[in-house]
Structures are given as structure tokens and as C-alpha cells.
């Protein structure tokens, strides 16, 4: 049997690469680089050059950062070798030698790496929520603070909203693949704030990739994170909220614009994703 007929017998789920689907579904590094550039310049009146991407996974963001300017550098830290190796092959190598040589990847726990100091450290897609006690999270924040230059900033994302603590599934059709991305809140325990989440993919031929990624997190609130950042030595913490407009097809629905503005008071929404910026 030829290789192509063997492939044809596989379902779309069996042929799919979970990292490719993850990057398309969950990550938006160009928008994040744009947010880094604008926010750092506005707060520090200079251009950021170096970043550190904690929980970097495939180093998609670190790679995009370095693509943006020939002087930029990035450190990526993740303890999962399979994911880092995927990133080296599919993100760094295609970006070319000049970009790849400016991205340094460490296979380690984010709490163990404290090498060179950077302008911006980020921990995205809520990865730092694996630290489920105040002591663990404060310890991590203290370490990030020490790894920043004197005018450096830490950027985190966080999700929440009135629906967030419910068990739910949200489906989004992918543009570049014949697949639907499914984000599931599997469980939430209001007593300790622990939540289990999972990512699944469903394909146009009916096949599924269940539990492509699974997460065990504490669902932290914005004030808890702000307090812990200040306790760990950051001087100031700003919250950036997404700007919403009326949806094109339904006046009762709002849709996010992808633009974020700094604010300290908002009306709660069913679901939101924000950036927290902590200044050293
Ligand atoms: C939610 S993914 C985030 C991937 C990417 N940064 C993003 O924004 O989509 C979480 C990543 O964190 C890594 N990870 C979890 N705990 C870690 C730790 N303590 N130290 C280093 N990496 C960790 C996992 O291996 C995984 O690749």
C-alpha cells in the first residue's frame, strides 16, 4: 500500500498535529507583540528589546518578537522537551538563522531560570495559574521581578466573567483547518477555586481529538493577582481591558475589538480576557 493511501485511511484527527491547531486556536502573537511595543513605550519612553516568555510552549511568541526587529532577543522557558522541540522545528527553524540565534530556550521550571535580565517578562494563556496557593504564586512573581531590568515590566493575561466559574463548552470554527476548537471548563470547585479545563478538536469528517491539552488551575481574581504582585515587590499594577463594540449582526451582542485600554472600573461581562501589567 502506498504512503498516500495509508494517509487517506487516517481520520482528520489522526492526521492532525495538536500544536498546529493550538497555535491557530489560542495564540495571537502579532497582537501580543503590538501590545508589548505600545505599552512598554508608553510606560518607559523607550523601545523594549528583550523579552522572556515563561511557559513558552512552542516559543511562538518569542519567535514573533525576534522577527520584528534585528536587535531583539528572547528567552523562552518551558519544562516540556517535546513541546520545545516542536517549537525549534516548526517556529524557530522556519524563521531563519538570524531570528533563531536570538531566541534562547531553557528546558526548566520557570522558577529555576534567573539568567539575564530582560525588559519584559510575560506568562500567557493563564499558565501561571498552575500556582494554586498565595505562597507559590508570590514566590513565582518575586522571581519574575528579580529577572527584570530596573525599568522592566511583567505582563500577564487573565480570564474571568460571570460565566467563567460554570462548567461550559465554547466552540470556534478554525479558518485554516477543517476543524472546530472546543474550550471546556470541566469542573470548578468554589471552595478552593480549583478549575479543570481542556481543549478538544472536532474535525469535519466527524473524528475528534479529545483532551489535546488539559489544565489544572486555580481561578484567581484580578484583585488577588494585583495584591500578590505588589506583595512580591512590584511598584504598580495596571489593568488593561478589551474595548468592545456592538456586534455587526446583533445589536444586543458585544464583540471584542482586540484593542486594550487601561482602566480601574468596568461593568462585569459574561466572559473577559485582560492583561495585567506590573511595573518593577
Ligand atoms: C497553557 S501552555 C502555554 C503555552 C504558550 N505560552 C501560550 O501562551 O499559549 C502552558 C505551558 O507551560 C508549561 N509549564 C507548566 N508548568 C511549568 C513550569 N512550572 N515551568 C515551566 N513550564 C511549565 C507546559 O509544559 C506548557 O507548555
From TrEMBL:
InterPro entries assigned: SAM-dependent_MTases_sf (IPR029063)
CDD domains in the record: AdoMet_MTases
Name assigned to this protein: Uncharacterized protein
Species of the source: hydrothermal vent metagenome
Amino acid at each position: 500500500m502506498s504512503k498516500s493511501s495509508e494517509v487517506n485511511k487516517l481520520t482528520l484527527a489522526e492526521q492532525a498535529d495538536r500544536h498546529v491547531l493550538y497555535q491557530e486556536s489560542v495564540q495571537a502573537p502579532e497582537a501580543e507583540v503590538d501590545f508589548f511595543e505600545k505599552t512598554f513605550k508608553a510606560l518607559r519612553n523607550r523601545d523594549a528589546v528583550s523579552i522572556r516568555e515563561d511557559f513558552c510552549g512552542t516559543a511562538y511568541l518569542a519567535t514573533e518578537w525576534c522577527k520584528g526587529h534585528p536587535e531583539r532577543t528572547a528567552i523562552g522557558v518551558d519544562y516540556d522537551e517535546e513541546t520545545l522541540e516542536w517549537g525549534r522545528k516548526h517556529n524557530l527553524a522556519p524563521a531563519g538563522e538570524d531570528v533563531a540565534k536570538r531566541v534562547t530556550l531553557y528546558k526548566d521550571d520557570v522558577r529555576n531560570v534567573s539568567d539575564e535580565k530582560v525588559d519584559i517578562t510575560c506568562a500567557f494563556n493563564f499558565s501561571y495559574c498552575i500556582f494554586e496557593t498565595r505562597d507559590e504564586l508570590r514566590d513565582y512573581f518575586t522571581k519574575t521581578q528579580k529577572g527584570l531590568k530596573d525599568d522592566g515590566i511583567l505582563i500577564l493575561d487573565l480570564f474571568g466573567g460571570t460565566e467563567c466559574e460554570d462548567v461550559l463548552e465554547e466552540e470556534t470554527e478554525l479558518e485554516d483547518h477543517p476543524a472546530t476548537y472546543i474550550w471546556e471548563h470541566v469542573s470548578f470547585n468554589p471552595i478552593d477555586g480549583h478549575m479543570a479545563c481542556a481543549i478538544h478538536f472536532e474535525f469535519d469528517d466527524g473524528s475528534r481529538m479529545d483532551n489535546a491539552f488539559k489544565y489544572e488551575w486555580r481561578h484567581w481574581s484580578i484583585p488577588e493577582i494585583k495584591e500578590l504582585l505588589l506583595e512580591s515587590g512590584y511598584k504598580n499594577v495596571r489593568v488593561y481591558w478589551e474595548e468592545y463594540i456592538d456586534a455587526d449582526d446583533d445589536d444586543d451582542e458585544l464583540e471584542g475589538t482586540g484593542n486594550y485600554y487601561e482602566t480601574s472600573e468596568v461593568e462585569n461581562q459574561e466572559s473577559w480576557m485582560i492583561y495585567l501589567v506590573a511595573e518593577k
